[in-house]
Amino acid sequence: MLKAEGVDKSYRVGGMFAGSKRQVLHDVSFECARGECLGIIGESGSGKSTLGRLLLGIEKPDRGTVTLKGRNVMDRRTRAGALSAVFQNYRSSLNPYFTVEQAIMEPMKAARLARDGMEEKIGELLQLVGLPAGYRSKYPHELSGGEAQRVCIARAISTEPGCILLDEAVSSLDVSVQAQVLELLRSLKERGRTSYIFITHDVQAAAYLCDRIMIFRDGRIEETLETSKLGSVRSAYARKLLASSITI
Amino acid sequence: MSLWNQLSKDKWAVASMSVIGVILLAGVLAPWIAPNDPYAVQMRLRFASPSWEYWLGNDHLGRCILSRIIYGIRHSILWVLAALAASVLIGALIGFAAGYFRGRTDAVLMRICDVMLSFPGYVMMLAIVGILGPGLENILLAFIVMKWAWFARVIRTSVMQYAEMDYVRFAKAVGIRHRTILIRHMLPAALPDIAVIASGSICSMILQVSGLSFLSLGIQAPYAEWGMMLNEARAVMFSRPELMLAPGLAIVISVMAFNFLADSIQVALDPKLRTKSARRRTKEAENKAYEYVRG
Ligand SMILES: Nc1ncnc2c1ncn2[C@@H]1O[C@H](COP(=O)(O)OP(=O)(O)OP(=O)(O)O)[C@@H](O)[C@H]1O
Ligand SMILES: [Mg+2]
C-alpha cells in the first residue's frame, strides 16, 4: 500500500549560504499493508513528523521514494482521494473561515466525488464520528478541542482513502477525550478498508490501536515488531522507551 | 467579513470611510458635479473672492477654485490609488509565490526585492522623473517601480506564516492543486494584512505626489492637482494667503481620513488592540456594549 524506499531527508541549519546540513532521516524503508494500522513511536525530535510530511507528499525526499499503490506520492493525482491526514494541532487544522461542512467537503471535491450525494454523506460522517448533524454549519472557533479533532477525522475519512496518516492526533487532547477519540479510531479501523499510520510518542496509545509498531530513533528505524510481541523487544533503546512509558 | 463588522462598530472608521467615499465619488463624478469649467481662464475674475457662482473664489487666472479642487481629486487621489493597486498587485503576486513555494523561488525573488529596496527611494524617484521627464504618469510609474518590492516583502512574511498552518498542509496532502489552495486558503488569510499595509502607505503616496507636483515635477498645466494648486498660490502667499487654504485643507483632510482608516483597520484586525478598543467602547456605551459584541 504505502511504501517508503531508502528515504533520506536533511534540513539546512543556520544561514542561507553559511549553514550546514543536518540529516533528519537516514535511509528509511518500510511498507504499510492494506488495512493495517502501523504505529511509529519515538522520542521528540527523532524525525517522526518529518517522515509524516514526506509520506504525505508535502515535502520531497532528498533521496528515495514514497509510493502509494506503486505510484509516487509526490504526484498530486496519486494523493487525491487516496491519502489523507489528521494532525496534532486541531486549532490550526481547520481553516477559521470554513464551516464544518466546507472543511469536510474539501477533500471530497479534490477527489472529484459526485456532488449530489455529498450532503447525506456529510451527515453520515458526522454521525460516524459522534457529532450531531447540526454541527455542519458551525465554525471551528465554536468547537471544543475534541469536537474539532472529530471533525478532522471525519474530513480525513470522507473520501474513504486507502491510507490515513495521523501525526500525534490525540496527543494534545484531554486524557478523557483522548480515550474517546482512540476508541473512535479503533472502531473506524475495524471497518478494515483503510490503512492507518499512527505517529505518536505515546506507547500505550500505539499499543491500543496498532497491529504493528515501528520504533524510531534519530531518523532511523530501530526495530519493527507486532504489537502482541511488544514485550520481547530486542534493542536496548526500545526497551528503555517501553519501560519509561510504563512507569509513567 | 468580520473586518467589515469590526469597522462598522468603530465611529472613527465610519467617519473616515464616509469622508473617503465622498471624496472618491466626487472625483469620479467631477464633470457632473463641478459647478464650472476648471480650465476656463477669465482674467476679469483674477483673485475674485468667493461668490454664489464661484464658491471658493477664483485663482490667479480667474479659474474656479472649487471646480479645480474637485477635478484635482482625480489626479491627487484616484490615480494614486490606481498606482497603489498596481504595486500591491505586483507585490502580492511575488509575495505569494515566494512565501508559499519557499525554497529557491523564495531566495531568487527576495534577492531581487533586496536589490530594489537598497536604492534610496526618493533619489530613485527623482532620477526616474529626471530621465522620463516631469508628468503625473512618470511619477506614478516611479511609484510602482519603487514600491512593489516593499509590498512583496511584507506580503511574503504574512503568507509564510499562514502557509505553515496545518489546514494548508492538509489541503496539500489530499492533492488539492496549488492554485486552489492559494485562492481558497491563502488569499482570505493574507487579505487583512494586505489591507493594513496598503491603507498605511496611501497617505505617504498622496503626500509624495502632491509634493512632487508642488515642485512642478508632477502634472503639467493646465490640469488641476492639489500640490500644483498650492504651488500656484505660493506666488501670492503674502498678499492672498487664503488661496493656499483650499488645496491645503483638501490634502490634510484626505490624508487624515486615510490615516484614521488605516489605524482602524489595524485595530480591527489585531486582537490585542481590539480588546482595548472594545474596552474603550464599553465605557462609552455602557450596557449597550453587550449588544454590540453579540452584533
Ligand atoms: N523545516 C525544517 N527545517 C529545519 N529543521 C527541521 C525542519 N523540520 C524538522 N526539523 C528538524 O528535524 C528534527 C526532527 O523533527 P520532527 O518534527 O520530525 O521530530 P518529531 O519526531 O516529530 O518530534 P515531536 O515528537 O516533538 O513531534 C528536529 O531536530 C527538527 O529541528
Ligand atoms: Mg512531531
From TrEMBL, chain A:
Lineage: Bacteria, Bacillati, Bacillota, Bacilli, Bacillales
Pfam families with a match to the protein in the record: ABC_tran
CDD domains: ABC_NikE_OppD_transporters (cd03257)
Keyword terms: ATP-binding, Nucleotide-binding, Transport
The family this protein is said to belong to: Belongs to the ABC transporter superfamily.
Keyword Calcium: no
Listed GO MF terms: ATP binding; ATP hydrolysis activity
ABC transporter domain location: 2-243
Entries under PANTHER family matching the protein: D,D-DIPEPTIDE TRANSPORT ATP-BINDING PROTEIN DDPF-RELATED, TRANSPORT ATP-BINDING PROTEIN
Database matches in InterPro entries: AAA+_ATPase, ABC_transp_ATP-bind, ABC_transporter-like_ATP-bd, ABC_transporter-like_CS, P-loop_NTPase
Protein name: ABC transporter ATP-binding protein
Superkingdom per UniProt: Bacteria
Protein's GO biological process: transmembrane transport
TrEMBL record, chain B:
Alphabetical UniProt keywords: Cell membrane, Membrane, Transmembrane, Transmembrane helix, Transport
Keyword Nucleotidyltransferase: no
UniProt-listed GO biological process terms: transmembrane transport
Transmembrane intervals: 12-34, 77-101, 194-223, 243-262
Location in the cell: Cell membrane
Primary localisation category: membrane
Family: Belongs to the binding-protein-dependent transport system permease family.
Protein name: ABC transporter permease subunit
